[in-house]
Amino acid sequence: MAAFRFENDLVCLGPIDNEKDAAVEVAWTVDAGYMQIRTAEVPRPLSKMYLKKLYEKIEKRMDESGNFYYFTIRSRTDDRLLGFVQLDWISWSNNAGSITIAIGAPQDRGQGYGTQALKIALEYAFRELNLHRVTAWVPEWNAGALRFFQRAGFVIEARRRQAALHQGKRYDSFVIGLLRPEWEAQSALASLGVDS
Amino acid sequence: MPTTLSLSGKKVRLEPFDPERDSVHLAGWFRNAEYMRLMDTEPARLFSPEAVKKWQEKDLEVERPNGVLFLIVRQEDDLPIGFIGLDGVDLLHGDSFIGIGIGEQELWGQGYGTEAMRLSLEYGFQVLNLHRVTLNVFDYNQRAIRSYEKCGFQVEGRQRQAIHRDGRRYDILFMGVLREDWELLSGGD
Q1: Per the CB < 8 Å rule, is B92 touching A170?
Q2: What is residue A1's predicted lDDT score, i.e. its pLDDT?
Q3: Whole-prediction pTM value?
């Protein structure tokens, strides 16, 4: 089996670059849809200085919690910041964790960056962190996100009724999951050149 | 006419958790590993009353805590028998998680938890204006599932193989109760 790498042809996962990344991400924070994925708090635009503080908090939590791994997503061609992906709430005794991922700029979405970054992050989760399962949380109104995870093999596990209030309307909220054997079966197909 | 909330039932009442007074009870219940296997996904570990008090006190310092922790007290003799807490209260979406534990094991299966849950739901829906309440329960805890169903919770799905115990994997169930479910059960006023 080939060694795990933090990169493929299109993207790589990297650490935070405190100064440079804040200057890029500040423009994304006016997008409430992005902010709903980015933080658990009420979506609001963030200043560059606030973002730098947020990065410090993220790095502190990574150092101290022992169950949180955060990566920036960058372009392989020019190292440009594209988004972030994180594995969070890892329960080591149960080998289970959650994943959150977003591509920041609207023009960078639909280019395969997210799909390729998710692929690396899942390989990291199953091969490096030895997880047995990965969970993601997706509101019903974000059909694109649901399809995005389903293409990677995630299945709907729970439908929390009316849990998301979005622009004045109630939607269900999905809990979706991918198990190690499901991921392994896919990876085996992929290595044979079969498109799953 | 708005009614006031007493947080008090026939068998039990809810009191605000007092770190100074109540930490000794929580720390004692943690020693029961069987209880902890029903309560938490993480391995049982022990805390001194002093340690429990310290992490509970941290909550008092938070300006806008996103949780509410109650001690469950038996009415007949004022015995503290467990805790119940709304955790991760999300006022933006009107959703919250809830967790309960009856620490006094000889009192399991006697309806204390069910009544404490009903009192807490009344608090969640009437005071916090929640639209729904969510909880997680492990699929080997059938007694709890029955109790939650009595309070109006429905199974909304299951996280497959999410718990690892003694070399076997078990599911974590998601249960939810909507305000409308709760209103029907609680007499519609």
Answers
A1: no
A2: 77
A3: 0.94
Backbone angles phi, psi at B57, to 5 degrees: -65, -30
Cβ <8 Å between B43 and A161: no
Contact B134/A161 with Cβ under 8 angstroms? no
Comparing alpha-carbon positions, the chain A residue that sits nearest to B42 is A93
ipTM of the complex: 0.93
pLDDT 10s digits, A25-67:
999 999 999 999 998 888 999 999 999 999 999 999 999 999 9
Across the A/B interface, how many CB contacts are shorter than 8 Å? 71
Query: Which residue(s) pair with B98 in the sheet?
Result: B86
Cα separation, A14 vs A73, whole angstroms: 6
Q: Does B66 touch chain A (CB under 8 A)?
A: no
**What's the half-sphere exposure (Cβ side, CA atoms, 13 Å) at B75?**
11
Nearest CA in chain B to A173: B156
Name residues of chain B where pLDDT drops below 50.
Answer: 189
The predicted structure's pLDDT at residue A112: 96
What totals of helices (H) and strands (E) does chain B contain, helices first?
A: 6, 7
- Nearest chain A CA: its distance from B76 CA (Å): 38
Predicted local confidence at residue B59, as pLDDT: 79
- Residues whose CB is less than 8 angstroms from the CB of residue A129 and which lie 6 or more positions away in sequence, other chains included: A69, A87, A90, A97
